[in-house]
Structures are given as structure tokens and as C-alpha cells.
Amino acid sequence: VTEGAAIISAVAVSSNHRRKGIGTRLIKKAESALKGKTIYIFKEKDKNNEFYRALGYGKQDTWVCSVVKE
């Protein structure tokens, strides 16, 4: 975490607990702790694109990022 940005190296939910909103709640909790920062999430290539897009993240090479509003 820096003054203007933060990196999340992984977000994972066990396969038997997916599609229950857990991943979304994890991301939202991180965002609430990192208000005003640009968040970069390192994710597996070509995985979970729709999940991150639905949360407002855009592709930055292998990274997805979003500016969290204050």
C-alpha cells in the first residue's frame, strides 16, 4: 500500500462457496479500507473477467484496477 495505490495479490473463494456473494463482499471490504486509492488486483489470466468488470474494474495488462471514490 502506498499513498495513492494498493495491490491485492489474490482473491479466492472455495468452489463449493462460489456464487454466494462472498467474493464481492471481500472486494467491497477491501475497498472500504482503501478509500481514495487506486486498487490493483493481480488475477489469473482470462479468469473472472466478468466478476471484476461487474465491480467496476478494468483490465490493465494482467492486472485489473479501480479508483475507489471517497
Task: Describe the structure in brief.
With 70 residues, the protein is α+β, with helices and mostly antiparallel strands.
Structure description:
The protein is α+β, with helices and mostly antiparallel strands and 70 residues long. Helices cover 26% and strands 24% of the residues. It contains two helices and four strands. Strands 1-2-4-3 form a four-stranded mixed sheet. It is globular, with a radius of gyration of 12 Å. The mean pLDDT is 88.
Topology at a glance:
Layout lengths: L4 E4 L13 H12 L4 E5 L6 H6 L3 E3 L2 E5 L3
Parallel strand pairs: 1-2
Antiparallel strand pairs: 2-4, 3-4
The total count of helices amounts to: 2
> Unreliable runs, pLDDT <50, ≥5 residues?
none
Q: How far apart are the first and last residues' alpha carbons, in Å?
A: 17 Å
In terms of DSSP E residues, the strand content is: 15-25%
Can you summarize the main beta sheet? Answer: 4 strands, mixed
Alpha-carbon Rg, integer: 12 Å
Described by the principal axes of the CA atoms, the overall outline is globular
Enumerate the strands of the largest sheet in spatial order, edge to edge or round the barrel: 1-2-4-3
- Supply the helix-strand structural class: alpha+beta
Helix content: 25-40%
Mean pLDDT metric? 88
Compute the number of strand runs.
Answer: 4
Could you spell the SSE succession in H and E letters?
EHEHEE
